[in-house]
Amino acid sequence: MKGFFQEFKEFISRGNVVDMAVGIIVGSAFTAIVTSLVNDIITPIVGMFCAGVDLAQLSIQVGTVQVKYGAFLQAIVNFLIIAFVVFMMIKAMNAASKRAAALVKKEAEQEEKPEPKPDPQIVLLEEIRDLLKEEREVHKS
Prior knowledge:
It is built from 4 helices and 2 strands; from the N terminus they run ααββαα. The radius of gyration is 36 Å and the shape is elongated. A two-stranded antiparallel sheet has the order 1-2. By secondary structure, the chain is mainly alpha-helical. Helix 2 packs across helix 3.
């Protein structure tokens, strides 16, 4: 049993667990925002096109039980909106990541480029010039 608790302690001490906890907290806050978006903005607009029907209030009576299928449909709408927003965020992050990687690669390629080799004819002419200079200096002395 002691080994179990030691393993659990190591598990919760890892950085991944802390990252996951932060993600859950941010996700909870995000859910509140999306719920407000759906309940306060999207649902009234959809209701306007559906003759004023509030999706979440739809239900049927089956015997003595009231089945609130509208709440289920509302949960599906909420899920689809959350999934779409997360998809768009990941898509934007991937695009930004690709742009950043391309920029880093481009900078690395520019740093790696060796100095261009001069034209061999120019090198030969420079050597001839230097030799002629040396000859003139030798003859002057």
